[in-house]
Amino acid sequence: MSLLNIRNLTVEFATATGAFKAVDGVDVSVDKGEVLAIVGESGSGKSVSMLAVMGLLPDTATITADEMTFDGRDILRLTPAERRKLIGHEITMIFQEPVASLNPSFTVGFQIEEVLRLNLGMSRRDARARALDLFRSVGIPEPETKLNAYPHQMSGGQCQRVMIAMAIASNPRLLIADEPTTALDVTIQKQILDLLMSLQEDYGMALILITHDMGVVAETADRVVVQYKGRRMEEADVLSLFENPQHPYTRALLAALPENATGDRLPTVSEFLLAEDMK
């Protein structure tokens, strides 16, 4: 049995002009210790699907699914108290904008200590010691000093390391990373990805990596789900996906990789799909 299993997930948002379906019948599953990449361009419903799992969508969203279970537990039927024990403890998430995800009014040390006290019931002293260990484990320089820093006093890469430290603080069984390197420069992106993969192996976590970057997928994933306009287009192990993509949209994503350029510029996904239709 998969650790997380989602069947026929649909998410609709109420708007002034009617309902907008952001996710339409998506299936997603991930096994213990597996790295699953969910890939697709912006607007394909990748983040919304996982925010539905986390219970972080606004009240304007209507979520339905034939199944949404974590280790056999029905996520949609959990009581608020049961959900609080699961989300942020066994399932955690890293968001796209690390600086925006941290409260500017509190030190990063206070914020991670608060997570430890609320989720694990630690004393203030034990939470401080654990926060220091976590900062060291994610490679934050001068961790004793940085515990007392505010988010604006840290770089984007350091703030992302703080978010990762928060996410692994409770030894989660599933970590969801939503475009964790988007706001970072190329050098720091590689460092953050290497850190995530190292922690995933050390902790034995399942990892869902949401990305639009096929290069990241190739380097990190065991299995890949391709989404487009709220629907799942294709699912395969990473080697099969790159060597023998089955869906035109997957081929379009691969054709847009810089190393696959055959002319003066890369084709857009829309241009590639149009060319496929005309064959």
TrEMBL record:
It comes from the Bacteria. It is a peripheral membrane protein. Residues 6-254 form the ABC transporter domain. Its main location: membrane. Keywords: ATP-binding, Cell membrane, Membrane, Nucleotide-binding, Transport. GO terms for biological process: peptide transport; transmembrane transport. Gene3D superfamilies: P-loop containing nucleotide triphosphate hydrolases. Pfam families: ABC_tran (PF00005), oligo_HPY (PF08352). One of its GO terms (molecular function) is ATP hydrolysis activity. PROSITE patterns: ABC_TRANSPORTER_1 (PS00211), ABC_TRANSPORTER_2 (PS50893). InterPro entries: AAA+_ATPase, ABC_Ni/Peptide_Import, ABC_transporter-like_ATP-bd, ABC_transporter-like_CS, Oligopep_ABC_C, P-loop_NTPase. It is found in: Cell inner membrane. CDD domains: ABC_NikE_OppD_transporters. One of its GO terms (cellular component) is plasma membrane. Belongs to the ABC transporter superfamily. This is ABC transporter ATP-binding protein. The lineage of its organism: Bacteria, Pseudomonadati, Pseudomonadota, Alphaproteobacteria, Rhodobacterales.
